[in-house]
Design a protein that fits this description.
Blueprint (H helix, E strand, L loop, with lengths): L1 H29 L4 H13 L5 H41 L25 H49 L7 H54 L3 H40 L8 H14 L6 E2 L3 E2 L2 H17 L10 E5 L4 H4 L6 E7 L2 E7 L4 E5 L3
Helix pairs in contact: 1-4, 1-5, 3-4, 4-5, 4-6, 5-6, 5-7, 6-7, 6-8
Length: about 375
């Protein structure tokens, strides 16, 4: 049992490093595809990202969000290795014995041939591990910061494009020409978004699978610590680790939700114009833009998992199912689980758009229903 605990702990601490290295290898493999995107961004920045105060507000919000994400992630990831280095030193300085004769704890999990018991060897190993910690920190933030910056850039440009479509005067003699320019700009943004999604799709797949695996390992360790009655510090440590993993998943889903919302908003901006008063040539341009916007831009993991707040809520709902099924600690012994869509909803007073699942135990049949708008628990006894 002790060896199993040690193996799980080593996996918990070593897996993020392996994931960071794998992410950077995937990014290096796909990096050349981003050259056209970066060139387009550089050209757009040289020409000016906005031309009016209204456009400025739209661009600044996304720039602030991008800067905040990059700064906070880099600061937090630099803070963690620094904390690993300073905690053993502070504990040694504040030691009541007045000297540091106890074994030193390295900032990284390293299996050594012999035990470190003096300051010289401890300082030497810390100096050796410091470059690797710095490189791993930079590698963890570089690809994600670039993804966030480029995605928010596209969101800002789509928002500006929708603002132009709604505020272009249809009575102007240059209206048709201006609409053609806007449609060309829309096609360019679609091309850039497609390149961005294709470049980061495999990387996000690796990241998503790594997050799921990390969350499973941490949840297992948390349950084992609770059942074995270990200290509160261990439980708090794993809870913070789990919260960090869930927060990172939320950031990815929020990023994808912004891109989806802005691409769909362009559809509504085209429809909100006085299209019924426009000539047929201009109406055709609007129809092309609406048809393209009907398929929202999105970020995917492996081109099948779409990052959005809806999918993030689905994952949380799945976790809620597991928490409900975890009734063993309250005296229930779950023996069967199944999902049913063909129950007699009228007899138990449930809506037609409600999904049901039931589990049986020694006390009877318990039903849990999750509706579209209302979540409630319905219990029945035999």
């Amino acid at each position: 049992m002790h060896d199993a605990e040690r193996i799980m702990r080593n996996i918990t601490f070593s897996f993020p490093s392996v994931l960071i290295v794998l992410k950077n290898l995937m990014f290096r493999w796909k990096m050349n595809q981003l050259s056209s995107v970066l060139e387009a961004v550089r050209k757009n920045v040289g020409e000016g990202l906005y031309q009016s105060p209204a456009e400025k507000c739209k661009v600044i919000w996304y720039n602030v969000a991008s800067t905040l994400f990059a700064t906070s992630s880099a600061t937090s990831l630099f803070f963690v290795p620094t904390l690993y280095y300073t905690i053993p030193i502070l504990s040694c300085i504040l030691s009541s014995s007045g000297n540091c004769t106890l074994p030193y704890e390295l900032p990284a999990r390293v299996n050594l041939v012999y035990e470190i018991s003096e300051m010289r060897s401890y300082a030497l190993f810390c100096a050796i591990l410091m470059p690797s910690s710095t490189l791993l920190t930079i590698g963890a933030t570089a690809a994600d910061s670039l993804l966030v910056s480029l995605t928010f850039y596209l969101c800002g440009q789509l928002s500006i494009l929708g603002h132009h479509v709604k505020n272009t005067d249809p009575r102007s003699l240059k209206y048709h020409y201006e609409m053609k320019v806007l449609m060309v700009r829309h096609a360019e943004l679609l091309r850039l978004a497609s390149i961005l999604a294709d470049t980061f799709s495999s990387l996000m797949f690796v990241q998503t699978m790594g997050l799921i695996f990390s969350l499973c390992i941490v949840a297992y360790q948390l349950l084992m610590n609770v059942e074995s009655g270990k200290g509160l510090n261990e439980i708090i440590h794993f809870m913070i680790y789990s919260a960090a993993v869930v927060l990172l998943a939320f950031c990815y889903c929020f990023l994808g939700e912004c891109l989806i919302s802005e691409s769909v908003a362009l559809d509504w901006a085209c429809y909100s114009t006085n299209w019924h008063e426009l000539p047929i040539e201009s109406v055709r341009l609007l129809m092309i833009c609406i048809a393209r916007s009907r398929k929202p831009l999105c970020l995917t993991a492996g081109k099948f998992y779409i990052f959005s707040l809806e999918t993030f809520g689905t994952v949380n709902l799945t976790i809620l199912y597991g928490m409900i099924l975890r009734q063993d600690s309250h005296g229930y012994f779950t023996r069967a689980f199944y999902i049913s869509h063909s129950l007699d909803r009228k007899s138990i007073g449930m809506a037609e758009d409600t999904t049901h699942f039931f589990f049986t135990d020694h006390e009877g049949v318990h039903g849990v229903s999750v509706g579209v708008e209302n979540h409630y628990i319905d219990q029945r006894t035999e």
